[in-house]
Amino acid sequence: MKLRHSKKEAPEVNITPLIDVVFLLLIFFMVSTTFQREAELSIELPEASSQAQPTEEQRIEVAIDASGRYFVNGRPLINRQPQTIRKALQQALEGRERAPVVISADANTPHQAVVTVMDAARRLGLVRLTFAARLGDKESE
Fold this sequence. Notes:
By secondary structure, this protein is α/β, with parallel strands linked by helices. It has a domain at 60-140: Nucleotidyltransferase, domain 5. It is built from three helices and five strands. It has helices at 16-32, 82-93, 111-123, and strands spanning 60-64, 70-72, 75-76, 101-105, 129-132. A five-stranded mixed β-sheet has the order 3-2-1-4-5, with helices on one face. Helix 2 crosses helix 3. The longest helix is centred in the first third of the chain and has 17 residues, at 16-32. The model has no long low-confidence stretch (mean pLDDT 79).
């Protein structure tokens, strides 16, 4: 009787099913993951933690209410046009070249209203702008 010595072949490991399972798990986690929406930030303005420093210079105060109406040094403006704001700021300067401008805006004021005042001040060469805010509660610190 002749017994043959058979060569043992190296076992093959087929990893194709493993790759399929990992791929399906990857798809599952991608579909079931929720992403944070950073565009939905809750911002509450304005509030400050320190008091403003008093200035000796005569300043121009521009107030903007929640509906977007403008008041320069307490006097209401007739419309919301940038030219009107610029003329009111120029009259408030009273012949001076420069003066600090304090912008007091309601928390619900449209952002564009504040930008319009800033642009009008810049066109007149007024570069010292300050934003007024109310003091925050001590408990919120």
